[in-house]
Amino acid sequence: MDTKPRLMSGKGNALLVVSSIYQACTCYELFAATELHGKCAIVTSYKPSPGDISKEDSGEGLNEKLKQYEIYKRMLSEYFSLPPEQAITKAEQFEKEVKKKFVEEPGQMKLLIVVDKLLTGFDAPSATYLYIDKQMQDHGLFQAICRVNRLDGDDKEYGYIVDYRDLFKSLEQSIKDYTSGAFGKFEKKDVEGLLKDRVNAAQERLEEVLEKIRLLCEHVPRPKTTADYIHYFCGEDPDTIDSLKNTEERRQNLYTLTESLIRAYTNIANDMAQAGYSVSEAKEIKEEVNHYTNVMNAIKQASGEDIDLKQYDPFMRRLIDTYIGANPVKIRKSIPELPIIDLLIKNGAKGLDGLSDDIKNNKQLAAETIERNIRKIILNKTPIDPAYYKKLSAVLTALIEERKTQSESYDKFLDKHIQDLIELAQKTVEPGKDYPDKINTPAKKVLYNNLNGDTQKALQVFETIVEYKQDGWPDNPMKRKDLRNYIYEELKDDDLTDSIIEIAKNQPELT
Fold first, then answer.
1. pLDDT digits over 62-94, tens only?
2. CB-based contact 509:446 (threshold 8 Å)
3. Chain centroid to CA 56: how far?
4. What are the residues whose beta carbons fall under 8 Å from the beta carbon of 216, sequence distance 6 or more?
């Protein structure tokens, strides 16, 4: 549960098939004493009732029936937070709720322990692992295996069968015809392709993804430094507004393939020798996975697409730490996990510590990264306040042009340049405060900026919109037209009126 990607991420979960209700209860008791407490449950045909044990002799200690009754009662009592005597009446409700949670919240119900139930017809795409500790064959086994063969996302390529009862002896002999063993009553065509050797399948997937990502990066200019990768995947010039847009598809392909590569590698990382890789080959593959992981991290920062590191698949970062040991984006303990622009605003030049080492140690790359991130914010916010962000865009363009043509000591200039960029970043996130007293809300400030600093006109248009706007006006053509007419009476300018309507649609105060 702590090492397998789907179980670690909480996107997948598992079924454990055991031989008896008593065994199910015993397993539950063991798991409930671990971190799985509250995230595992028994689902069997057993319905606890005091009558079941009324005639049992408890003088010689709890026998199996007494023990399973006590465990079931305790499980229900804890789940419903009810006294045991009340809780035992809710066995059917318990089963419905844990099955629902297993399907809809796999991270909160990670393991169901079953005997016969849920092995046919239970549709749970989250189920990724099937642990079998029960003699099974033919249709019963076939149906059980089908519980984990439903796919529900790119991170699940197949389900896993963990066989404790040696049901698949033929697999160990690399015989793909299971009809002589576990599926003795089936025709070969009925089970062909149902089972694959886990290591072979993982190796095929690893080689496939490696080939794809190598092909994607084939045209990165040599010597393929971090700067070369950034320029290929983000564009050469941070001042070219379309550079990020024109390379967006490349970057998305890189992100998708790198994350697929990380998953593929972690699925086989502990079995490289078994897969036939030599020690040196295994080391080279690990280094290659490490390399592409570091490239992805650097490009996400350089493009401003690491917008919220907390949302970047926490389990993916855990996989990297556990299996790959890539150089993560280093964020000091004193600095929270924030996008680079927020780090710079909060911590000044010390915020550069939030950059990956390859970028941080190259001042030009650091400057380009900040420039791209600021450009991205400006582009995203321009529809909200066109006049203000067009001014900031012009300032950024001038700073970039100055960097390109500077004549003083480059390192000294870059230090000054980065400080100027930090000040500009502050203005992109927190617009200036030099407004007349009556221009005291975000929407009024935006109107003021886009009406040439005319306080009276900005206030009149604001009041007009507040007075005449109707619910849902931004998405209703008739209501929008009505409001436009009122605004036009104030401005007497068609183009300006259309511009103000578009701006007002982006102001929470005015919608």
1. 688 889 999 999 999 999 999 988 999 999 999
2. no
3. 52
4. 250, 253, 254, 257
